[in-house]
Amino acid sequence: MDALGSDPSKKLIFIPNGGEGNVTVVHQNSPDKHTLVDTVATFAGAKIITVGPVTHNAYLSSLSEVQLRRPLTAPTGWRTRPRPARSDRRRLIVIKQ
To answer: Of 3, 33, 54, 58, which is most buried by a Cβ count within 10 Å?
Structure first.
């Protein structure tokens, strides 16, 4: 699980699964009981989620086609890691209620 989005007024919980490219929507019937509403297809890597308090829409975002470039030069013995290229685009998907 990457993150959670929730809509308290509608008692809905949005659970993004970036690895599989979907969002699971669950209704909270009571504090101890939840019901699966739907599994919405999104895209792989999407895991940043928020829910609009007025619109009640879930907004999901992710980098698309992350292209890694060489790490910055570091002194010998230091560990470096690839950095996302500046030209990366973000994807946005809206789940309307």
So the answer is: 58
